[in-house]
Design brief:
Shape: elongated
Radius of gyration: 40 Å
Order of helices and strands: HH
Number of domains: 1
Distance between the termini: 102 Å
Length: 113
């Protein structure tokens, strides 16, 4: 009978431990769900702020692009009025060969050192 009483006490004790573990796991799950909800809210907020910032950046870049385009058009007009060509004349092959030999000579000097 003493053995039966001890077995029953042990069984109750084990059952209590299992219930405690289950309760702790449930509490952890609830905490994790709460944290996940907070993270989702933060991500939604971040997404909204990023979207707004990107729209603003896009509009600023469009304004900048128009300003650069207008400035370049003004430069072309001013250069044309001053009689400057709007394109650089191509180098003659003779001038290119002089430049190539100069660069080649400089390279060979650098290799000797």
């Amino acid at each position: 009978e003493v053995l039966m009483d001890e077995c029953m006490a042990q069984a109750r004790n084990e059952h209590g431990r299992e219930e405690t573990k289950v309760a702790q796991l449930r509490e952890l799950v609830n905490m994790a769900e709460g944290d996940i909800l907070v993270m989702r809210e933060r991500l939604a907020s971040c997404q909204g702020l990023t979207k707004s910032a990107m729209y603003e950046l896009t509009s600023r870049l469009e304004v900048l692009e128009r300003m650069v385009h207008n400035s370049l058009a003004d430069l072309v007009m001013i250069a044309g009025a001053a009689g400057l060509p709007d394109a650089k004349p191509a180098q003659s092959p003779n001038q290119r060969s002089k430049l190539d030999s100069t660069v080649g000579g400089l390279r060979s000097l650098g290799a000797r050192e």
